[in-house]
Design goal:
The chain is mainly β. Helices cover 12% and strands 43% of the residues. A five-stranded mixed sheet has the order 6-7-8-9-13, with no helix packed on it. A four-stranded antiparallel sheet has the order 1-53-52-51, with no helix packed on it. A four-stranded antiparallel sheet has the order 2-3-4-5, with no helix packed on it. Keywords: Nucleus, Repeat, Ribosome biogenesis, rRNA processing, Transcription, WD repeat. One of its GO terms (molecular function) is RNA binding. It is found in: Nucleus, Nucleolus.
Length: 760
């Protein structure tokens, strides 16, 4: 189950409320821009959702396309799936034409073709779209490189902007060395003008492109790097642009280089969208954030997902106090994210320096972090410089402040080691707090609070083993033992006396990962090696208990049970094995969990243990396993009970009788009640015509298909059957008039629809 991977954004205003729709893995999430809260998700695709666009024929509906080869039509207000169109090949983008309803334009995987698909009219919920024609081949896979022009009269003229730019190409570089490659495109809503963005940061406005010999273009320049996205406002008075600078630029159309700026929005701007009335704008960013901006160029809302950076250098951690997921966030920060609420909580500034968004610039990054068992202390390591000669790093200790409910810097150690710190862990004891760091200077150090003054930290012990570089360190569950690996040798130490108790050196290969067993398996020590071995030692006998040949990329123990999760990457996919150290046979196996390597994972404790799990998922009773892929997708395992609970939230809501009546209820509610009583008394068993009529009358008008599709079916339902039972013609007359009234209301009186939607 994939969460928090926003890639594309669309924006709409309806029913006096603002909504933002964005793709998130195989979901489409709906947010409110007033409260910035997640409302619900549109769940139905089985693979990555790659594009969404509003239905031009119905402003309450949205189309979505996916790599699973389907296009789905949703009622995004109620979260209802209306129809599924099966295309049959992976889809990467979707476009619609306001002039041609019932026609979609899709990016398909076949040489990245642009095809037009005519949607069949059918009462079935799932239908295959067979009428498909190619528009163009070998187009850019970036959706921002395709746009619609105005005044479309036929399918051949829809992508006139795309064909024009292909015909009137620019040289890859000009005399001054500028890079002219196209990066994005936008069409003016009222004029024959096309705006294009380029790799050198320039924006070109093309005109007279219909006449090949007379086309002209003007150039505007502010961005110092590639322009990622362009968007005209609905009235066409301004052009919005964004790029890596994280600055939204508003160009006044037809006024040369006159422009306004909105800086420091976060990560690189990837996509810009405007509301239909031009009152609000939305920008999506590379750090997985959506910013809501007023037309006066003031930020009025921020929707922050799990901050998505270039890489996660820290481990996935759980804050013992807030139970939030903690990992790298903004550059130089740690982010705290609530998995229960699916919401970003806050960022903790570790580096405390202004970050400069410039490629190739060497800046401080948080590379290590660890919490103590009570969540009172946080240790971080920040560094910059890839070479040892240029390396600069700091070890910082942060204390939790009860008053501010956040961590405050307590101690900064500028020379903790003479070389890079590669491993760090806190002791598990609640009585004394100890931090151990291992570095490439062939030493590990133990840090403790001062005996007289516990407001500062100092080094308590320095250990080494034959001048070998340590690779990992780990405390036992009761903190009575410390294991430190030096290349191929594991050393066991007593933290009380700092005596080296024994060494373990049977397996070949450098120790890559190290962890102790928990609870009844606390006497075991697990380790993985670079020779693709998973080994288990018995600490009571100091002998190798068992070993198996498997390439483990991540070994993650569950602190709340005896279970250990091992991720193995082979044959271009990752497998998961869950086992107990006392028994090498896996309790749970899942092949092909994902196609990338897994280097980060964590077990998250449950608020209430699960009791009704199947035997194959009992390892999820006390905690839930989350893991992060190389593509920055956060994945987790859930039981069937949890999936049912999540799906139930997306079902259509039933209105309670206590809800206040509306004009539509006064008009239709009493008649429906009388009809139900009449049907119960006269016809206990409903026949086919009554089912058809009831479904039409009880379905919201904005969800119904076009009247032309339902007309013949609806009229046929009134044919008198051969049962010999005389039907009441007055009842059919009432049904027809109510149905026609709903259709007329939908077309001519959209304001009345508000009352019906509130009632429904």
């Amino acid at each position: 189950y994939c969460i928090l991977c926003q890639s594309r954004l669309i924006y709409n205003l309806q029913l006096n409320s603002w909504f933002v729709l964005c793709t998130s893995g195989d979901l489409v999430k709906v947010y409110s821009t007033r409260t910035e809260e997640w409302l619900h998700s549109l769940q139905g695709h089985t693979n990555q959702v790659t594009g969404i666009t509003l239905n031009p024929a119905n402003h309450l509906q949205v189309y979505s396309c996916s790599v699973d080869g389907t296009v789905k039509l949703w009622d995004f207000i109620d979260g209802i799936l209306i129809k599924t169109f099966v295309i049959g090949c992976p889809l990467f983008a979707i476009y619609v034409s306001e002039k041609h309803t019932g026609v979609l334009f899709l990016h398909v995987s076949m040489c990245f073709q642009l095809v037009s698909v005519h949607l069949p009219k059918s009462a079935e919920q799932e239908v295959e779209a067979k009428e498909m024609s190619a528009v163009s081949s070998h187009i850019s896979k970036n959706p921002s490189c395709t746009a619609f022009g105005r005044g479309v009269r036929s399918v051949k003229h829809i992508f006139i902007s795309f064909f024009s730019l292909c015909s009137f190409s620019l040289k890859a570089t000009d005399k001054k060395g500028a890079k002219n490659a196209f990066t994005c495109i936008a069409c003016h809503p009222t004029d024959d003008c096309i705006a294009t963005g380029h790799e050198d940061g320039k924006i070109r406005l093309w005109r007279n492109f219909i006449h090949k010999k007379e086309y002209t273009y003007s150039t505007q320049h502010w961005h110092h790097n590639a322009v990622n996205t362009l968007c005209f406002t609905p009235e066409g008075t301004h052009l919005l642009s964004g790029g890596i600078e994280s600055v939204l630029v508003q160009w006044q159309y037809g006024a040369g280089n006159r422009k306004e700026f909105l800086p420091r929005l976060g990560g690189s701007i990837l996509h810009i969208s405007a509301s239909s009335d031009g009152q609000l704008f939305c920008t999506s960013h590379s750090d997985n954030k959506i910013t809501v901006i007023e037309s006066s160029f003031k930020v009025c809302g921020v929707i922050q997902g799990l901050v998505k950076g270039d890489a996660v250098l820290t481990d996935l951690m759980i804050d013992p106090r807030s139970k939030a997921l903690v990992l790298n966030g903004k550059p130089g920060h740690l982010q705290f994210y609530s998995l229960l609420r699916d919401k970003h909580l806050y960022n903790l500034d570790i580096v405390q320096q202004e970050y400069i968004y410039e490629a190739g610039l060497d800046q401080f990054e948080v590379v290590k972090a660890a919490f103590d068992i009570k969540g009172s202390w946080l240790a971080t390591v920040e560094e910059r410089g890839k070479k040892s000669s240029d390396l600069e790093f700091f070890l910082k200790l942060w204390a939790f402040d009860e008053r501010t409910q956040s961590f405050v810097l307590n101690t900064t150690i500028t020379a903790a080691h003479t070389d890079r710190i590669i491993s760090m862990c806190f002791s598990s004891s609640e009585e004394t707090t100890m931090l151990v760091t291992a570095a490439e200077d062939s030493q590990f150090k133990a840090w403790c609070q001062g005996a007289d003054d516990q407001n500062f930290w100092s080094c308590d012990f320095v250990g080494s083993y034959h001048k070998l570089n340590p690779t990992n360190c780990s405390f036992s569950a009761d903190s009575s033992l410390l294991a430190v690996s030096f290349q191929e040798v594991i050393t066991i130490w007593s933290p009380d006396t700092w005596e080296m108790l024994t060494t373990l050196c049977q397996p070949p290969g450098v120790i890559r990962d190290l962890c102790f067993g928990r609870l009844s398996c606390s006497k075991y020590l697990l380790g993985t090696t670079t020779k693709n071995l998973l080994c288990c030692w018995n600490l009571l006998t100091c002998e190798l208990e068992w070993s198996t040949s498997v390439d483990v990329s991540k070994l993650q123990p569950d602190p709340f049970s005896e279970n250990v999760a091992a991720f193995s990457y082979q044959s271009k996919h990752t497998d998961l094995f869950v086992f107990k150290p006392s028994e090498p046979r896996p309790l749970f196996t899942n092949k092909n969990v994902c196609s990338e390597k897994v280097h980060r994972a964590v077990f998250v404790p449950r608020e209430e243990p699960l009791n009704s799990c199947d035997e194959s998922t009992q390892w999820l009773n006390r905690s839930q396993l989350y893991f992060l892929t190389q593509n920055m997708d956060l994945l987790t395992f859930s039981t069937a009970t949890e999936e049912d609970r999540m799906l139930s939230s997306s079902k259509q809501l039933v209105i309670d009788d206590s809800v206040a009546v509306t004009p539509f209820y006064l008009l239709l509610g009493k008649h429906r009640q009388q009809q139900q009583k009449l049907n119960t008394q006269s016809h206990p068993v409903s026949d086919k015509p009554q089912q058809t009529q009831g479904s039409l009358l009880h379905t919201p008008a904005h969800v119904l298909p076009a009247a032309s599709v339902l007309c013949s079916m609806f009229v046929n339902s009134f044919l008198i059957s051969n049962t010999g039972v005389q039907q009441d013609p007055l009842r059919y007359f009432v049904h027809i008039n109510i149905f026609l009234f709903k259709v007329k209301t939908l077309v001519n009186f959209p304001k009345l629809m508000k009352y019906e939607l509130l009632y429904l």
